[in-house]
Amino acid sequence: MKNTFPIAALILSASNLAAAEPAEAPQANTAPAAASADEPTKIIVVGTGSRGSQRTVIDTPVPIDILSTKELDKTGQATLDKALQFRVPSFNTVQTPVNDATSLLDPYEIRNMGPSRVLVLINGKRKNSSALVYTQTSPGRGETGADISAIPTDAIKRIEVLRDGASAQYGSDAIAGVVNIILKDNASGGSFTARAGVTGEGDGKMGGLSLNQGLALGDRGFFNYTLDLSKVGLASRSGIIDPKVEAWGWGVDQKTVIEPFLKKHPDAGNINGSPATSSAKGEFNMRYELDGGVNMYANGAFIHKDVTSYANYRTPYWRETDYGLLHPAGTEYDGYVPDFVGKLDDYNASVGAKFTMDGWQGDVSLTTGGNKQTYSVHNSLNRGMMSDRASNPSLPISPTSFDAGGSEFTHYVLNGDFSKQVADKVNVYFGTELRNETYKLMPGDPASYLRGGADSYGGNSLAESGSWSRSNAGIYVGATYDISKDFLIDATGREEHYSDFGNAFVWKLSSRLKVSDEVTLRGSVSTGFRAPSLHQIYTQKDQYSFSGGQILIQSLINNVSPEAKALNVDPLKAEKSTNFTLGLGFKPDANTSMTFDYYNIAMKDRIVLGNVLAPSGIPSNKVDQVIASRDGSTGLNFFVNAVDTKTSGIDYVLSRRNISALDGKLTLNLSGNYSLQNERDGAIRNPADVAAIGQTVINATQEALMFTSRPKFKTIFGADLDYQKMNFSLNNTVFGPTTFRNADIDNANLAVEFKTKTVTDFAFNYQLTDKMTLAFNINNLFNVTPEWQLKAITAAGQTLLNDNTVDASGLTKREQQAAAATFFGRYPMVTYDGSHFSQLGRTFAMSLNVRF
Questions:
Q1: C-beta of residue 157 within 8 angstroms of C-beta of residue 216
Q2: Which residues, in sequence order, are CB contacts of 720 under 8 Å at separation 6+?
Q3: E-assigned strand segments in 681-787
Q4: Are 68 and 24 in contact (CB under 8 A)?
Q5: Which residues, listed in sequence order, are joined to residue 208 by a DSSP beta bridge?
Q6: How many secondary structure helices (H) and strands (E) does the chain include?
Q7: Is pLDDT above 80 for 32?
Q8: Which residue of 197, 408, 527, 729 has the fewest CB atoms within a 10 Å radius of its CB?
Q9: pTM here?
């Protein structure tokens, strides 16, 4: 929810930023920012005293990272989310090893809080959520977020990352922070950029073309647009399979079955790593001044994305037949690998007006946005249909390609925001927001879901598809008070009403004290909330899951279904949070700045996608009855407000610029995030029927995904040198350890721990002419890849790891556990659940930018 009130604690509204002439800000709160070497980072924050007065980043009551478009370009990353990963310490994202629908956009988060608790704005306006809810066993499970990878980097002027709870200002989803993406607003000139890249393995080839241009609308405004086309090839990092491990895992003969197959397919036919992606993006930003000082503005974007990924290869000893459908007649059956094709359309648009009336600054706007995803499966079959046909040949044959349906999310947002300097030291503000959201599940063709559906990814059934909507209205009011030129306080309150679950009231108090010209103290305390998403309330489907070498069909039942009511699962309610931050800023001179910020987030009623519950063997138990009512299902899960959590940590940013070195100018930056606490607070709240059979909605695997699957710490150290027409940038990102409790290992006694690793990126820019720049990137210069180890968490686990006895399989207990974590060696670097950074290794990228 975007507000344009003058609050020094917050990122400004885009319309204010676009309308004002930016003032130079120090680099105190930028993550390693080479931008200071080529173009000073700019920000203006509306303060008290006069609207549009300048206040530098270090003076704000809460931490804000500012990144220019040049800084994003220097990462050499193909998408915006990956660029932020290597510039903002508390921002994390990683490509999941098992893709399906997750391949369309990767989960991201700030301060280990998941994608649902990060609000994304475009020019200060709320961007629509994705239609996808993550259901894989990966970080971000059970959540959804806006698709920031959809935004073309060349359309961006800068990005502002607010690392603090902001529900009182923006409403739901802003518990962990806000990412505000400011679009380019130049009224003339532009650039054309050609990009190319490849991984060190020779795959994952990337190519892209981008055009940005600004046009003047007379002397009253501008129209700026960006067109972007890109394509990234498949990159596979499947492991070479050990025949002993494969024979043990599948329980079949090594000599006669496994070795002949692996001789033809050393990686067991698996294709996992980075999917093939092609995308077309368009974005525009405009403003026009009418008579009477009214400024009309608008912006919009549309992206189409096609993504192809692959399921695990169905070996002939796993799926013993394809019923003659997937291999040519007269050839030997050798298994098959289903593919998954996802198509994504994402759009957003805003139109509004800024004006002044009786001393009040007003901003009224209408925003819309949507995300639609459709899925199809190829080179697969419906095994249930073919099994039925084996006993009754008159039944229809299974297709080998399936329309699996899809999902769609849309919203409409009406904002009105007003502020006024009512006294020399007091500025008041208020506003309202009306929002309507719609979520749809679109059915696949019947063969995609009946009798188990398409082997690898079952489609949405007709009965469980539909369209659901809700509306909400919010109003906020607040004031900033400059008690003195050095001491500022800001207070905000907000009331929200949702049509589907009721009311929420939240507030925030923030302050900043300039102890001296060099030292600033800042802090805030606030309450927040996150409404359950429509995805979490209504998503219901049967889905494929892999466990212990078997494909299982498991049922996700929605929170308002008869099945959930039979299990006495409570309707979802809003998550609530209490945020506390305390920070110190130090700026001894114009070229040096430091900030240190402590944060503490306590959450109540956190929504989780529960663990899959298995039949208890007690026919009278309701869990067993619900599972039995689902054709072919072996288990069920659902969304539930299951736990309270507590998260705390420290962010720090240090910068030194304009250092004379090698006849040039050097900038050094050090920034980082250290997680002090990220854990469950109190007992898990299991429904009575679940507790009665000794099961739980959150097991060790789910807890690890929430609390320890993101780096314990992340440190970024960057050096940036300007020398004549050249710029050299060296950036080191230290990813701290992460811990998983993979489902197929003995996770009561063992964990999988990923070791601390440093990824080094090098960028070189050469100004060929005044209007032409050549850039070259080597990302992950030293080809560092994730590395993990089994870690004992109990005495029994240590005994298991110390046991070097080789059993009849030819493996030790440790080797068997390692095999279970990696699907028998198919995912050797990241295991089956994921890691803390990419497994692709070294990559190369080059670009040519021509300005006009």
A1: no
A2: 33, 34, 36, 37, 666, 667, 668, 669, 727, 728, 729, 730
A3: 713-723, 726-735, 738-740, 750-754, 757-769, 772-779
A4: no
A5: 195, 230
A6: 16, 39
A7: no
A8: 408
A9: 0.90
